[in-house]
Design brief:
Length: about 475
């Protein structure tokens, strides 16, 4: 095999397709089902408006770096448009404007500076007070030629095109070890794959401690419902903290609105269900929607210096990573496929240096690096010293998870709705932090590096590779 690609989301499938098209033999290894990971939770913006403002990117990466960040995002959108056309993919791809709007004078002052920066780096940007929202705003940054699409329809078409001609796509294939070498070895629960190169197209790289100090995992939330009044198709972002965004979507001919945001660090929010409530209240108060019919959450990875890490992993010869996409995973996931495939093929890529995992930008990353990793150290100690939630199984209600102290040891206990109890170790198998219960998703979440486990301890999100070990409860 020429290339083994770990992860069946947009980054993995785009990389696989581009390499196959160039004549390489690839194998995609997906832990669960294709698109069941974070790509399956996306709200599918294709945009040049990045989570890191261009005023900040110019300051931290210089004018050239900020220009490259903008042009690479544009290139990713056009790559998707090209594949939609060449493969005749029916995914509702459409060009729309994006608006980042201000509702206070302070937000407006910052926004005016961002308009100037966006124009400076080459975006089709302008300032406008004409924003097609059903509530007043003081002004907005408008960017032309952004896009919306149905990511599942798009990516299923890519996935269908991968098998054949020596290429393979394996679902329900969990990777447990990656060995760099000539060839590389990727050990899975179902066997070992050898390849000349490996791409870790996972949410976070697998068990790489140094890289994880530069990556911070956050939960993000979304709700959706049918529109009961007009709302112009587009992308809309507010300037609040935590932020909110709005987009339209046609479902079987019915116009829907999607509202997202309310992000928080993984494991840092006890009542995660309250984030859905906040979004639903926001949607009903601001938009022509009376009932929310869908809700879901996802995981986003924030990089220390504001841009993703895409390329050959530090200290590795043949292993590549793609991570830190922030809230624009569809754009950056596509870009990752473009950059990594170029590197593997030996092609010169104009964006590779900007996104190189080994880059050092202390001015951009120092504050977040210190704060985030201090929080990891605090959680590592504090959760061990924290009082348990109870001492008896009766303290855990059906459908709930709690940390109990049983015979002098902490145990993570979940009770199914029928009363059946499951007990696992609360110690994350990545680096040993203690997991917290997520009541909205019914999962055990690690606040240190974002690992997530099912109620019974099965890995849902890396960087952990091993499940939480089961524990016995006393019979009472």
């Amino acid at each position: 095999m020429d290339v083994a690609i770990i992860g069946g989301g947009i980054a993995g499938l785009t990389t696989a397709w581009l390499l196959k098209r160039a004549g390489k033999k690839v194998a995609v290894l997906e832990m669960h089902r294709i698109l069941s990971g974070q790509t399956g939770q996306t709200t599918a913006h294709l945009t040049e408006l990045l989570d890191t403002p261009y005023t900040t990117l110019i300051q931290d990466f210089g004018d050239k770096g900020a220009h490259l960040a903008a042009s690479s995002s544009r290139a990713a959108i056009e790559q998707i448009a090209s594949l939609v056309e060449s493969l005749s993919i029916d995914c509702g791809f459409s060009r729309v404007p994006a608006f980042k709007y201000a509702r206070t004078d302070r937000e407006l002052r910052d926004l005016v500076l961002e308009v100037s920066a966006a124009r400076q780096v080459g975006l089709l940007a302008s300032f406008t007070k004409d924003v097609p929202l059903p509530f007043p705003v003081k002004g907005a940054l408008r960017v032309e030629d952004q896009a919306l699409f149905h990511p599942r329809e798009y990516l299923l078409a890519l996935a269908d095109a991968i098998p054949g001609d020596g290429c393979h796509l394996f679902e329900n294939t969990k990777v447990v070890e990656v060995h760099d070498g000539a060839p590389c070895r990727v050990v899975t629960e179902r066997g070992t794959v050898t390849a000349q190169a490996v791409v870790e197209a996972t949410t976070t790289p697998l068990n790489r401690v140094a890289m994880h100090t530069k990556l911070y995992a956050y939960r993000t939330y979304a709700v959706a419902g049918p529109l009961e009044g007009p709302l112009e198709a587009g992308q809309y972002y507010d300037s609040q903290e935590p932020y909110h965004y709005i987009r339209t979507q046609q479902v079987d001919g019915v116009p829907y609105v999607i509202v997202g945001g309310e992000d928080h660090k993984v494991g840092a929010e006890e009542d995660t269900a309250s984030r859905f409530t906040a979004l639903e209240d926001y949607a009903v108060r601001h938009l022509p929607v009376k009932r929310l019919t869908h809700r879901w959450s996802g995981q986003i990875i924030e990089p220390a210096d504001g841009l993703p890490f895409i390329g050959r992993n530090v200290g590795r010869r043949h292993v590549y990573v793609a991570t830190g996409f922030s809230g624009t995973g569809m754009t950056f996931g596509t870009l990752a496929g473009m950059v990594v495939s170029d590197l593997i093929l030996g092609n010169e890529d104009p964006y590779a240096a900007l996104y190189a995992p080994g880059r050092v930008k202390p001015k951009a990353s120092a504050k977040d690096f210190i704060q985030e990793n201090a929080d990891v150290a605090f959680r590592f100690v504090a959760d061990r010293l924290a009082r348990p939630d109870g001492h008896h199984l009766a303290d855990v209600a059906p459908g709930e998870g709690k940390i109990l102290e049983v015979e002098g040891h902490k145990v993570a206990v979940y009770r199914e709705d029928d009363g059946t109890a499951h007990a696992v170790s609360p110690v994350c198998t990545h680096l040993g932090c203690h997991v917290h219960w997520n009541n909205a998703e019914r999962s055990w979440d690690c606040p240190c590096h974002g690992g997530r486990f099912s109620p019974t301890g099965r890995v849902l999100n890396g960087p952990a590779l091993k499940d939480l070990p089961s524990r016995k409860l006393p019979v009472k």
